[in-house]
Amino acid sequence: MGGLFQPMHLLLILIVALVIMGPGKIANLGKELGQAIKGFQEGVSTNHNQVANPPAAPQPTAQSQDSGPKAA
Fold first, then answer.
1. By the 8 A CB rule, do 26 and 17 touch?
2. Is residue 23 part of a domain?
């Protein structure tokens, strides 16, 4: 017995999808899928860069020692 994803099965699925949705919708679907994959890859790359090069910790500011009220 063969698997589900044999070339003839995939061809039949493609033909049925083409008949149901039409060529314009399939082209738009491919475009949107490509944009989604590109956005995912950019997000993973950005996250990887942030993990590899974390931003520097903020430096504490110097505060004066005599911050209390002064006696006259």
1. yes
2. yes
Structural domain including 30 reads: 10-45
Task: Enter the pTM of the model.
Answer: 0.46
Query: Per residue in 9-28, pLDDT tens?
Result: 989 988 998 899 888 888 89
Handedness of CA 13, 15, 33, 41 (dihedral sign): positive
Half-sphere exposure of 44 (CA within 13 A, CB side): 6
* Helices (H), ranges, 1-72: 7-52
27 in any annotated domain:
yes
Q: Residue 2: inside a domain, yes or no? A: no
**Longest Cα separation, the chain:** 99
Instruction: Let me know the angle formed at the C-alpha of 31 by 26 and 37, rounded to the nearest 5 degrees.
Output: 125
CA distance 16 to 22: 10
